[in-house]
Design brief:
The chain is of the alpha+beta class. Helix content is 29%, strand content 38%. A six-stranded mixed β-sheet has the order 2-1-6-5-4-3.
Length: 157
């Protein structure tokens, strides 16, 4: 992003809760992968609950995102469905993240394509993203990446 394209805090404050989530998906999890936008979009005490683990604080979340992006090359997040609560304090998004395995889930970085599906519930506080509860199909992605390149994952539950 060049200087004239930089988003400002004032522009973000004018966005609806849904627009903020979509902007986050489209600019942090997708190219240009601008993790510095987290400072403008999230409250300082932002938390994410992922797979039952809570990561607290905006800086800790930024570091978590950076580590994730290193493990999924060329990530792109597509929003599949989104809606907000009537009072505007929560946003729910169903999404798909695609990219190339660059060490995801501790596996060998074989550059195989991945599709990660998930659902995120966002809490909005003081006009910013305050908490994200996220669930995703990591087990299924792990099993696919463990299967032979030309094979299929025949594991059943």
């Amino acid at each position: 992003m060049n200087t004239e394209d930089k988003i400002t805090e004032a522009r973000i404050s004018e966005m609806s809760p849904i627009e903020k989530v979509l902007f986050f998906w489209g600019n942090v999890w997708s190219y240009p992968h601008d993790v510095e936008l987290i400072d403008l979009l999230m409250v300082e005490d932002f938390a994410i609950t992922t797979a039952g683990e809570v990561i607290s604080g905006r800086e800790a979340f930024k570091n978590w995102v950076i580590a994730f992006l290193k493990n999924v090359k060329n990530s792109h997040l597509e929003n599949l469905d989104i809606f907000e609560s009537q009072c505007g304090t929560k946003v729910v998004s169903r999404w798909k993240l695609t990219g190339l395995n660059n060490g995801m889930l501790g596996l060998e970085p074989d550059q195989r394509p991945i599709e990660l599906y998930g659902t995120a519930i966002w809490l909005i506080r003081d006009g910013r993203l305050a908490h994200n509860w996220v669930e995703r199909n990591s087990l299924e992605v792990y099993r696919k990446l463990q299967s032979p390149v030309n094979g299929s994952d025949t594991t059943t539950f």
